Amino acid sequence: MISETQESVQLLNTAIIKSKEKKIDNNFEDRLADACHSPEMEALSVAITFLSEKQKISRDQAAISLIERMRELDSIWNDYVMMEGISNLKDLLTKSNKPTQ
Question: Residue 30 to residues 24, 43, 44: CA-CA distances in angstroms?
Answer without folding.
Answer: 13, 20, 20
